[in-house]
Structures are given as C-alpha cells and as structure tokens.
Design a protein that fits this description.
Layout: E1 10-15, H1 22-32, E2 39-41, E3 45-46, E4 58-59, H2 62-70, E5 74-80, E6 83-88, H3 90-96, E7 100-104, H4 110-117, E8 121-126, H5 129-139, H6 144-152, E9 164-168, H7 173-194
Parallel strand pairs: 1-7, 1-8, 2-7, 3-4, 8-9
Antiparallel strand pairs: 3-6, 5-6
Helix pairs in contact: 1-7, 5-6
Length: 195
C-alpha cells in the first residue's frame, strides 16, 4: 500500500455503498486516534442541511458551494445523490505536512482524488446486501423505492489494486473498526519512516 504524497503524509479515502456503515467505522477510528495530532478526520462540505443526520459536515447552499468551488476552496469535489460534496483545499497542506488525513469519499470521485493528491489509500467499507437494505430503511431518509434504486446503482469497481483495502462491516462494529485502525496505523508507520 503506497499512499505516499510528496512530503510524507497519507490520504485515506473511505468509500463503499450507502448503509455499509462508513461513518460508524470512521467514528470508531476517530475515538481510537483522538489523542493523535498527526491523524486528521476531514469534515466535508455538503449541500445538505446540518440536521439531516449522519456525519457531521459543513452545510452550505448550492449557490454557496458553487462560489466556494470557483474560489478554489476544494481540493476535490463531486456530485452524488442530488447533493454536492467538497473536500477543503487545506487537506492538501495537511497531507503535504506529514499528516494522515481520512476522508469519506466516493467511488466515482477516486480519479479526482488521485489527480489532486497523487498516491492515495482506498478503504472500501462494505456489507452484505440484506444488511445494507436494513440499515438504509432504518435511516429513514429515503422511500423504499429510493433505497432499492440506491442498492441497484452500478458504482465503479474499486476493489482491486495495491492501494485498496476491503473491510466487511456486516457484523460487529468493533471488528470492522479495528481493521480500519490497523490500515491507518500501517500508513502512519510508513509516514514516520518517510519523514
């Protein structure tokens, strides 16, 4: 797993289907690394209300997002599910400065992440289809029809390559969370050796 950007830091892009529990796995890891000043969990900018549930994010209107995009506020940005998502440009400086930054990304945006950051580590959080369906239904953000459409959506295949780790989160959170922590720890060790 390379994931080395010039300067010794690393970018971990977490992707996977809706309902796989990406936020939960990242939250587990955030608690583990809460005292580590070299690990940064990135807050995304999203055109979604701040009280919509799910991840903590910076909520902006679509017009505000477009203005921020024009002003170069984002290292990476993309559209998905009728929303706009942005990764603050400051993350580039964090990674160049030797930090390990962790972002909730999108499979479709991986080329943009690689273009902006160079080598990245991709962590695919996945779960069995019945588990995904149950979690999406419990979330209550979408109708049954929207859940089925989301589950049937064909996403780019990112499950192969030297920079890809796959974590199944169908079972207990601590199992998937500890696997994710191990991936991040390996990257931190590489960053220390490169410094």
């Amino acid at each position: 797993m390379s994931a080395k950007l010039q300067g010794g830091g690393a970018l971990v892009v977490v992707v996977g289907p809706s309902g796989a529990g990406k936020d939960s796995v990242m939250g587990f890891a955030a608690q583990h690394f809460s005292d580590c000043h070299d690990v940064h969990f990135v807050r995304r900018v999203i055109t979604r209300p701040s009280d919509a549930g799910g991840e903590v994010h910076e909520s902006v209107s679509e017009d505000e997002f477009v203005e921020m995009q024009k002003d170069g506020a984002f290292a990476v940005f993309w559209d998905a599910h009728g929303l706009k998502y942005g990764i603050p440009a400051a993350v580039l400086e964090h990674v160049r400065g030797g930090m390990t930054a962790i972002v909730n990304g999108s499979r479709g945006a991986l080329p943009a992440f690689r273009n902006a950051f160079g080598d990245i580590a991709v962590v695919v959080i996945t779960a069995e289809t019945p588990v995904l369906a149950k979690r999406l239904a419990e979330r209550g953000r979408e109708s049954e029809e929207e859940v089925l459409r989301r589950l049937s959506r064909q996403a780019p295949d990112v499950t192969s390559g030297p920079d890809v780790s796959i974590i199944d989160n169908s079972g207990r959170l601590d199992v998937a969370g500890n696997r994710f922590v191990e991936v991040v720890e390996r990257l931190r060790v590489k960053a220390d050796h490169a410094a």
